[in-house]
Amino acid sequence: MEKLLGKLLLVAACFAILCVLGWNSPENPSVALHANPLKASQEQYQRISASNYYVQNGN
Questions:
Q1: Which superkingdom does the taxonomy of this entry point to (predicted)?
Q2: What is the pLDDT of residues 21-59, one digit of tens each?
Q3: What is the spatial distance between Cα 41 and Cα 1, in angstroms, rounded to a whole number?
Q4: Which pairs count as long-range contacts for 19-23, CB under 8 Å and 24+ apart, including other chains?
């Protein structure tokens, strides 16, 4: 019985933490959170594209 009560208390605490995090999160998250890192750095995009070119044509 005590183990069940302990598990229920743990589940309730986890749920409470998730609720608090949800209430404190911004309604519209920043676009930067979901940005494509390759679009942020043109130099990095060119390096990766060049390496794919060499791999495909290296046969």
A1: Bacteria
A2: 988 877 766 655 556 666 667 777 777 777 655 555 555
A3: 57
A4: none
d(CA 27, CA 11): 26
In angstroms, the Cα distances linking 8 to 13, 19, 20, 30, 43 are: 9, 16, 18, 35, 52
Quick check: helix, strand or coil at residue 40?
helix
Joined tokens for residue 11: 């589940």
Torsion sign over Cα 37, 43, 44, 49: positive
In this predicted structure, what is the pLDDT of residue 13? 97
How far apart are the C-alpha atoms of 30 and 45, rounded to whole Å? Answer: 22
User: What single letter denotes the amino acid at residue 33?
Assistant: L
